Amino acid sequence: MKPVTVPLALAALTFTATHAAAQVENMGPKAATYITDADVKKVNALPGVDRQIVSVDIGKLNEAVGIVHRGKLVPAAPGAAPAAAPASGAAPAPCGLPASAAAGSKNGTGISHDHQTETYIIVSGSGTLVTGGQIAGGRKSAPDSPVTTTLNGPSCSGAIVGEGVVQRVVNVGDIIIIPAGVAHGWVEIPDHVDYLTVRPDPDRVLKPYVHPVLQKK
Questions:
Q1: Cβ proximity of 11 and 26 under 8 Å
Q2: What is the DSSP letter of 1?
Q3: How far apart are CA 94 and CA 115, in angstroms?
Q4: Looking at residue 192, which CATH number applies to its domain?
């Protein structure tokens, strides 16, 4: 009788190679969209901080998933001015409370999204997350910026101030739900923090999207 171990081994190798070469495809509201651990790691290895993986039409709304990598962050000195937004094109429109309200803030800078709720799932590292309060001295994301078009829709960035601010250390496995309109940011990161973001988009402010490195060829 002929041995079968070689053909079986070849078949296994073929399956593994085929599976490894699979690409993400936005199948729309009538089918599931699969994102592998390898897909997430591939996107997270790219330069940048917040990288959208997909934004898919799921019927009554769109839903997006991203992976965020943030490096070491040391708390700013009390009373330090928030970092200025990078200059690009027309001056961004102001939003939130007046800049004077940011004086003495110990909550760092953050962002709030007009339409999009986010769920953070911490996958690596840890840090102190800030949520609540209000944005002061804020600037609206430009209509053509990646924040507006690809990541979160219209948003307001600035200092986090006011009542109801929570600072909490989060670690691997923790899950945080941040409703639309709630200010959030990071005040301290000892080494790094990586987290998946799940972003329901009921107003469909983001177009369907698959990250270019994962697009089906």
A1: no
A2: -
A3: 18
A4: 2.60.120.10
φ/ψ of residue 164, rounded to 5: 80, 15
Encoding tokens for residue 74?
A: 């040391």
Residue 193 lies in a domain: yes
Tell me the per-residue pLDDT of 82-124, one tens digit each, with 9 for 90 and over.
444 444 456 789 999 999 999 888 999 999 999 999 999 999 9
Q: Which two tokens stand for residue 113?
A: 């999204």
As a whole number of angstroms, the distance between CA 136 and CA 162 comes to 9
Tell whether pTM > 0.90: no
Answer whether residue 20 is part of any domain.
no
Nearest CA among 184, 171, 151 for reference residue 66: 151
Whether residue 179 lies inside any domain: the answer is yes
The pLDDT tens digits for 187-204 are 999 999 999 999 999 999
Domains held by the chain: number: 1
Which residues lie across from 73 on neighbouring strands? 189
User: What's the sign of the alpha-carbon dihedral 215, 148, 61, 200?
Assistant: positive
Question: Which helix (H) or strand (E) is 217 found in, with range?
Answer: none
